[in-house]
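Standup notes
- DV: blocked on the single-chain target, sequence here:
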Amino acid sequence: MPKKIDHHNTHRDIHKLVQIYLDYALMEKGLSQQTIESYRSDLNQYLAFLDKHTIRFFESNQTEAIQQYLAELEHEGMTPRSRARHLVTLRGFFKYLTIENIIEKDPSKYIDLPKIGLKLPDTLSVQEMRSLLLMPNVTTTKGLRDAAMIELGYSAGLRVSELINIGLHHIQLEAGFVRVLGKGDSERLVPFGDIAKEKIQTYLKSSRPRLLKTQTSDYLFVARAGKPMTRQSFWKLLKAYAQKSGITKNIKPHTLRHSFATHLLEGGADIRSVQIMLGHVDISTTQIYTHLSKSHLKELHTKYHPR
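- DV (later): unblocked, structure below
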C-alpha cells in the first residue's frame, strides 16, 4: 500500500494516487469495472476542476474546494442525484487516503449530500411475488435450483452476494435458519419459511447431485464445476422469470430483499425485528421501508374508506 507522497510534484502524484485507489477498489472491494470507470470519470472531473482554479491538492483547504466544486456542478445544471454521486465518489477516495495516512483528515467527511428526496426501492406486491416464485420449471435440474434460490432470497431477505455465497454448513434446515456473512464480515442468523425449507430439501436431494456430477462443493447453490453462481447470472435468470410472469417492473436481485422487508412491515412486524433480519447496523437504513408501508396503508385507506 502507498505511503506518504512527495508533494512537490502534486499533479503527477495525485493522478497516480487515483489509479492506486481505483486498483484497490477493483481488487479489494470487488467493485465492477463499470463502477470503477464511473469513479475514474468523477475523480478526473474533480482534478480538472482543481487545475482550472489552480487549487493545489495537498496545499489547499480541500473541504472548501469540494464545496466550491459541488456549487459549480449545481450552477452547470447537474441534478442533486448526480451531485450526490460525485460527492460519494470523493468521500470514498478521501477516506482511502486517510486510512493510508497519505492525508491526516478526511475533508469530505462533514459535507452533506445534496437533498435528493426519498427514493423508494422497487418492490413486488405479494401477488407478483407469488407469480415470480411459481415461474421456475421444477421438473428440470436447474429449475429446482432456481426455485430454491429465489424462495430463500425472498424468505430470508438476503443480499445477492449473501445468497450466492451460502455454504452447505450455513444452512440449518430442521431449525429453519440460515447463517449469513454480511457486510463487514458481520454474521447474522436469519429464519426462513417452510416453503423455502421444502424447496431446498428437494434441490439438495434431486438437483444438486446432478449439477455437481463428479465434483464436490462447499457452496449450497452451485453452477458450473461446483462454483457458486455469479451475481450477473442470478440477475439474468431473475429478470427472465419476471418477464415470463408478466411483471413489468425493473426487477433486480435486491428487489427480493426490498419486498421481504416491505411485506413483513405491512403484515405487522416491528421495525427492530426487520432491522435485525436485514442486518442493518443503523435503524435509519431500515426506516425507508416504513415509508413504503405507510404509502401502502394510505392507498388501502383511500380505496376502501367511505370518507
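- Follow-up: The two ends are 66 Å apart (CA to CA).
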